Amino acid sequence: MKILVIGSGGREHALAWKLAQSPRVQKVIVAPGNAGSAIERGCENHPASDVAAWLALAKAEKIALTVVGPEAALAAGVVDAFRGEGLKIFGPTKAAAQLESSKDFAKSFMKRHNIPTAHYMTFSDARLAHAHVERTGAPIVIKADGLAAGKGVVVAMALEEAHAAIDAMLADNKLGNADTARAAGARVVIEEFMQGEEASFIVMCDGKNILPMATSQDHKRLRDHDEGPNTGGMGAYSPAPVVTPEVNARIMREIVRPTVAGMAADGIPFTGFLYAGVMIDEAGAPRVVEFNARFGDPETQPVMMRLKSDFVSLIEHGIAGTLDQVEVEWDRRVALCVVMASHGYPDSPRKGDVITGLPTEEMEDAKVFHAGTTSSEGSVLVSGGRVLGVTALGDKVQLAQKRAYEIADRIHFDGAQMRRDIGWRAVKR
Ligand code: AMP
Ligand code: GLY
């Protein structure tokens, strides 16, 4: 069978790589893909990059099933469009994807269904937002209501920072191009600062049944010691030791099951990958930081590295509504992914730098997933913010970390940014 993977990042390269390993797969088409998926065994790229083009591609190629990577495609209604034409696709509808695309939707959903999360208020009037921050004090969290590629959140440790964030989101248009910025930042959600350790809890859902993926943890800040601006993620590893069996059970009981049941009860059943970013406090109590309606990036890379089951079969069960009938097997080793980002990321990533030193041989215990790359005249060039996800397996987190950095240190492009401390929390434990 042929499979279509929608998207072009490190997540999509990792999903396509895993899907292509299934013996039943003839070919995985990644649209639009990157320089890594272009040459991956069993994979090829296609330039399609909007809903109409993906639909046409799926029909022309007689695609058996489609897996959606990015939130933007979901928010554009790709799942609704495919289903409307009778095509099989794994992902949430546009309505269900609001769990991610609208923080306001997510917050009122959680309130209505008693799912633990930070207290919040939504503002569109900058003056009222400033007054609210004055009343509550810092630390406090300011979020743009809308998709902002992981950049629409400011964790303000001081009041001045909070005020500046409100101005940036409601008055200026600093989130990128003016139209998307206005759309993404027209309202702000101001919420209580939660203390604790964060983990990524990602599950597959078929509307009713839940199949948890391996746990993982991401590093959102640009620089070592969790300093610098928030990014889409500078590295990740799996499993996340903070998610002990007890914490895992609590996340399922207090967050994931009520979310899936709540969406179904509200008439918008959730299908696809559901990602709960959870803050776990000292007592092991989990609260939702955010929902994503998709797999995490870079979490996908270490999680796919550990997946031993046939991923195509899991997706088929996800589409058929029979996830209660499958089991999933994970590599017992730790997988750790170090992101190499471009010069100027996250504010103004530079494109065009030449990448050298990429491994040429397949490795049993490691894989360099591409993200923002493109190929031109035999060279691989930087084409986006996060460029590569160097991912390795090891019996212990230290070993996975050592191996990933060993490979990353042989790769070069001008201005590359890379944290040296991915996995530090797990190492500390
Ligand atoms: P989000 O895009 O909502 O996940 O926010 C990005 C990052 O900001 C999260 O991964 C957290 O590290 C941090 N963050 C967001 N909301 C809160 C909160 N209420 N308390 C503490 N940290 C937060
Ligand atoms: N790594 C966080 C995310 O995918 O949103």
Would you mind describing this structure in some detail?
With 429 residues, this protein is of the alpha+beta class. It is 32% helix and 27% strand. It contains 15 helices and 23 strands. The strands form six sheets. Strands 3-2-1-4-5 form a five-stranded parallel beta sheet, sandwiched between helices. A five-stranded antiparallel beta sheet has the order 12-15-18-23-20. A hairpin with an 8-residue loop joins β7 and β8. The chain is globular. It starts with a strand and ends with a helix. About 2% of the residues have low confidence. The structure holds adenosine monophosphate and glycine.
Put the structure in a nutshell.
This protein has 429 residues and is α+β, with helices and mostly antiparallel strands. 32% of the residues lie in helices and 27% in strands.
How is the topology of this model organized?
Elements: E1 2-7, H1 10-20, E2 27-32, H2 35-39, E3 43-45, H3 51-60, E4 65-68, H4 71-75, H5 78-84, E5 89-90, H6 98-101, H7 103-112, E6 120-123, H8 126-136, E7 140-144, E8 153-156, H9 159-171, H10 178-185, E9 188-192, E10 197-206, E11 210-212, E12 217-218, E13 221-223, E14 227-230, E15 235-238, H11 245-265, E16 271-280, E17 286-292, H12 300-306, H13 311-320, E18 334-341, E19 354-355, E20 366-370, E21 373-376, E22 379-382, E23 386-394, H14 397-408, H15 424-428
Parallel strand pairs: 1-2, 1-4, 2-3, 4-5
Antiparallel strand pairs: 6-9, 7-8, 7-9, 10-11, 10-16, 12-15, 13-14, 15-18, 16-17, 18-23, 19-22, 20-23, 21-22
Helix pairs in contact: 1-12, 8-9
The structure holds adenosine monophosphate and glycine.
The site of adenosine monophosphate has 16 residues, from strand 7, strand 8, strand 9 and strand 17.
